[in-house]
Write a structure and sequence with these properties.
Helices cover 35% and strands 19% of the residues. With 556 residues, it is of the alpha/beta class. Helix 7 (129-149) runs antiparallel to helix 10 and helix 14 (350-368) runs parallel beside helix 15.
């Protein structure tokens, strides 16, 4: 079979106007970026108010392993499969970050015959949304420093500047820095640091805002620093919200592309799920729901992170109510969760599959807590044996859930017909009784404990007095009703990335908490997770180059 990039380059893409026409989007409401990408005009999106919404399907997965799960590939394959069986379906995905593309993970546009295209554009600069977010974030940082330099009229306590800078690249050297060195002309030296752009509060705000007015209000609400009396200073106090909104004006508009089978897809926004809330934009999802009967979207990493945040943050904030969930698993990943080394995954091992299913079972149980019916998609690899697949089916049947083999990587939409039909049955059954995991009126620490105990199966949450006191101060300041956004390793239910399977009896250590007042949640940083990743010993960037024909090699 051809490689992903060979398949993508051989795709017969339609002009983006044809994709828009299929959705009944008038040509004047498409803002083209070349022949195969376009943004959707804000006034057209506003005109959709009052239309009925379609069914919302979430695709999530087990905890990721080096063996791969194929969550994005399954999202694309399911969207194509729904269209294949005669449904009017759209796909909503996040935009890939340059950090993983040049780091370890590689591109994020699907794979095999279940891809969104143009893949190279999507994985690189795309329509410039991430650059706009980075610029808006760092403009605010520059305005803080400038205000302090010119007399500090607001009384900013330089020891309590909380706003860091961002860069859409993995660069561990920038995690902690000292800025404004070099003398009087350069300002007052202080400690600072960088996060990756996908962890920026601006990214979260863009993905949760409903329109430009809401965007500017949220930007203005950002708390950037505190005075000596600990009163907050917001972005609007620095008169930064207007200019930031201007930089984000086009970035707020969803990006329309297509799958290999010429089905429509929105790709918009891209917060990571291990350090941010892990969902594509509310604007893209709500617009897609007005334009189609079924919307298939994904949440980042495993269901313990991505799905929990999709339910408890995105759905809570946007008033969304999902109708069905697809949980993706692979035989290889289940074997790894069952204790098999990566080099031994090619040999049949039914016992390891069965043992590894404990991780899958935990995710099934967790999804059920939100009141949404689920189905398991076994993302097929050629080395999978019938006995291994049957072991997964038997295990899921004992939990009252179907497990369906999906061969979309090799067969495109033909490989997801059975899955698509089952998803339609679940979505149309009316079985969904969605509710978030916790109530708004719980204390912030109780919300953290609820997730730790009910989703991660931890026995306790470990947090220093300084962390608990900070949470209490935020409650006193009126932020107690906010949801919490857990920043934790994606590889385990615990904070130890090596502890696979479905561990119990562990503790959840909370290292730090951060208030995202504009986005509307509290970030809870657990264990050793970093908000600025580093590159691996041999990064993907070492193998990326242009060939003699000017085509990109090594990105996928």
């Amino acid at each position: 079979m051809a490689s992903d990039i060979e398949i993508a380059r051989a795709a017969k893409m339609k002009p983006i106007q044809d994709i828009g026409e299929r959705l009944s989007i008038p040509e004047e409401s498409l803002l083209p970026y070349g022949r195969t990408k376009a943004k959707i005009a804000a006034d057209y999106i506003e005109s959709l108010d009052g239309r009925n919404s379609g069914k919302l399907i979430l695709v999530t997965a087990i905890n990721p392993t080096p063996a791969g799960e194929g969550k994005t590939t399954t999202t694309v394959g399911l969207g194509d499969g729904l269209n294949r069986i005669g449904k009017n379906a759209m796909i909503c995905l996040r935009e890939p970050s340059l950090g993983p593309c040049f780091g370890m993970k590689g591109g994020a546009a699907g794979g095999g015959y279940a891809q969104v295209v143009p893949m190279e554009d999507i994985n690189l600069h795309f329509t410039g949304d991430f650059h706009a977010i980075t610029s808006a974030h760092n403009l605010l940082a520059a305005l803080i420093e400038n205000h302090i330099y010119w007399g500090n009229e607001l009384g900013i306590d330089q020891r309590r500047v909380t706003w860091r800078r961002v860069l859409d690249m993995n660069d561990r050297a920038l995690r902690s820095i000292v800025c404004s060195l070099g003398g009087v002309a350069n300002g007052f030296p202080r400690e600072g640091g960088f996060d990756i752009t996908v962890a920026s509060e601006i990214m979260a705000i863009l993905c949760l805002a409903t329109d430009l007015d809401d965007l500017q209000k949220r930007l203005g609400d950002i708390i950037v620093a505190y005075r000596r009396d600990r009163t907050a200073i917001r972005a609007r106090d620095l008169e930064a919200d207007g200019a930031m909104t201007v930089l984000l004006k086009e970035a707020m508009q969803p990006n329309l592309v297509q799958t290999l089978e010429n089905n429509p897809a929105f790709i918009h926004g891209g917060p990571f799920a291990n350090i941010a809330h892990g969902c594509n934009s509310v604007v893209a999802t709500q617009t897609a729901l007005k334009l189609s009967d079924y919307v298939v979207t994904e949440a980042g990493f495993g269901a313990d992170l991505g799905a929990e945040k999709f339910f408890d943050i995105k759905c809570r904030k946007a008033g969304l109510s999902p109708d069905a969930v697809v949980i993706v698993a692979t035989i290889k990943a289940l074997k790894m969760n069952g204790g098999v080394a990566k080099d031994d995954l090619g040999a049949e091992n039914v016992d390891a599959v069965t043992k590894g299913c404990a991780n899958l079972g935990r995710h099934i149980e967790n999804v059920k807590q939100f009141g949404v019916p689920a189905v398991v998609a076994i993302n097929h690899f050629t080395a999978d044996t019938d006995a291994e697949v049957q072991a997964v089916r038997d295990y899921c049947a004992d939990l009252g859930v179907d497990a369906i083999l999906a061969t979309h990587w090799a067969n495109g939409s033909a490989g997801t017909e059975e899955l698509a039909n089952r998803v339609v049955e679940l979505a149309e059954s009316g079985a969904a009784q969605f509710a978030p995991l916790y109530d708004d009126n719980l204390s912030l620490f109780e919300k953290i404990e609820t997730i730790a105990k009910r989703i991660y199966r931890a026995d306790e949450v470990l947090a220093d007095k300084s962390v608990r006191d900070q949470l209490k101060r935020w409650e006193a300041d009126g932020f107690g009703d906010l949801p919490v956004c857990m920043a934790k390793t994606q590889y385990s239910f615990t904070t130890d990335p090596q502890m696979r399977g479905a561990p119990t009896g562990h503790s959840l250590p909370v290292r730090e908490v951060r208030l995202s007042a504009g986005a509307g949640f509290i970030v809870v940083i657990c264990g050793e997770i970093m908000t600025m990743p580093g590159l691996p010993r041999v990064p993907s960037a070492n193998h990326i180059r242009l060939d003699d024909n000017g085509q990109i090699e090594g990105l996928f």
